[in-house]
Write a structure and sequence with these properties.
With 416 residues, the chain is α+β, with helices and mostly antiparallel strands. It is 49% helix and 18% strand. The protein is elongated, with a radius of gyration of 38 Å.
């Protein structure tokens, strides 16, 4: 008997020393005095079971925290919770309801083991004050309803309960998420069987609540930051684009279209493929301004710019070069193809009709084309090409306007 007591005492102290060396207060072990070694053995088994549960409890929290620290998003974190908690309690559905800006509880995420007759879908919301679970935020206590039909009989105005029953749900385990003093929302585990949740479950999840609420809130904030970064990037891109755009014609301004020309020159030097530029000028535009006013003149500029852009390919560029002059850059294009494009634009603009002071009028344009093919013997540069295009435009104006001229000595082309 003395030897048995000695062994029991030794094992008791050993268990206390090792099992109490954990951070979770729920894993602190109390060993009661027992009269026989058999009773002590039973107690040891119970303690080991409790300790294993505590270890798994900590591992679950650690795994979820790690998933957030790795940068996983809101959906991925909840998926991890959905999969990992199955070994702790039995459920066929898990929902995450978050408090939105309207002070409503909204289903932000859910997953089910079934696909039939789902009633409570993502986006479903209820005013928080219209629910019976708001009071759970004050004490951060989970709530178990093991018979939803019985609960609904006492609370017939509960829309969410009615829909849950229609979906086939028989019992619920609602878990409030509170980060610090701030309510975040709820995790709700649901089963299609009655009496699936117990106080033991509540004890486990009460200990986890503060950790997971922080994880969910952090993940939610991560998504918000990610969304804001996307919006900021889009806004900066828009601002950058607007900085490159002429405010009147909504096409590139002079500086930007000249950058596109430099890029075309560099690309042509690398690929040995030709490109062309077109200098376009609205004929007698000063007469339009003097006759109909500058507002009408602005409308003409905008409409002509839109028509030019519509007549180009997606990889071509157009910008306002100055006043009523436009510069077009045609990548990987020889002068024959450039003439076809220029002539198409000229005809489209000629067919435009404008009205002012009860009068209808038309405008025409003159176009001069320069090609990198004319730079065979010398390195093509921006100034040379612009001068060639300007000379071609000058010749078009001198020959009667409303025509396209190519700066190619053997290709003096006239409109039909």
């Amino acid at each position: 008997m003395r030897m048995e007591i000695t062994r029991k005492q030794y094992l008791t102290e050993l268990m206390r020393e090792h099992l109490n060396d954990v951070s979770d207060p729920n894993c602190q072990i109390d060993l009661l005095d027992t009269d026989t070694f058999d009773e002590f053995e039973i107690q040891i088994c119970q303690v080991l079971k409790q300790f294993a549960l505590c270890k798994r409890h900590n591992a679950l929290v650690r795994d979820i925290s790690n998933s957030v620290n790795k940068g996983m998003g809101f959906d991925e974190v909840l998926h991890n919770i959905y999969e990992s908690f199955k070994e702790v309690i039995h459920y066929e559905r898990m929902s995450c309801l978050l408090i939105n800006e309207k002070r409503e509880l909204e289903i932000a995420w859910f997953r089910t083991e079934y696909t039939d007759n789902v009633q409570l879908n993502r986006g479903f919301s209820l005013k928080l004050e219209d629910t019976s679970i708001e009071e759970m935020f004050s004490n951060s206590e989970p709530r178990i309803i093991n018979d939803l039909r019985a609960y609904y009989a006492k609370n017939p105005d509960s829309i969410s309960t009615r829909l849950a029953i229609k979906e086939g749900i028989a019992s619920n385990f609602s878990w409030p998420l509170v980060a610090g003093d701030n309510p975040v929302g709820f995790l709700i585990f649901s089963s299609r069987k009655v009496n699936q949740f117990s106080r033991e479950n509540m004890h486990i999840f009460r200990d986890l609540a503060s950790h997971v609420a922080y994880v969910v809130e952090k993940s939610r904030l991560y998504n918000q930051i990610e969304r804001l970064n996307t919006e900021l990037t889009a806004a900066l891109t828009s601002v950058k684009e607007q900085a490159c755009i002429d405010s009147l014609t909504q096409i590139y301004h002079r500086g930007t279209i000249l950058e596109f020309l430099e890029h075309a020159i560099a690309q042509s030097h690398r690929t040995f493929k030709p490109f062309c530029i077109i200098m376009l000028d609205i004929d007698y535009f000063k007469v339009v301004n003097d006759t109909y006013g500058h507002l009408v003149g602005d409308d003409v500029l905008l409409t002509v710019a839109k028509t030019i852009k519509k007549g180009l390919r997606k990889y071509d560029s157009v910008g306002r070069y100055g006043g009523e002059e436009f510069l077009i850059v045609l990548n990987e294009t020889d002068y024959v193809a450039a003439f076809v494009i220029a002539e198409r634009i000229r005809r489209s603009i000629m067919r435009l009709e404008f009205s002012a002071n009860d009068q209808v009028f038309n405008v025409t344009v003159s176009l001069g084309i320069a090609t990198s093919e004319s730079c065979i013997d010398v390195r093509c540069d921006q100034d040379k090409l612009l001068l060639k295009a300007d000379n071609a435009l000058y010749r078009a104006k001198n020959q009667g306007r409303n025509r396209v001229i190519v700066d190619q000595p053997t290709s003096f082309l006239k409109p039909n």
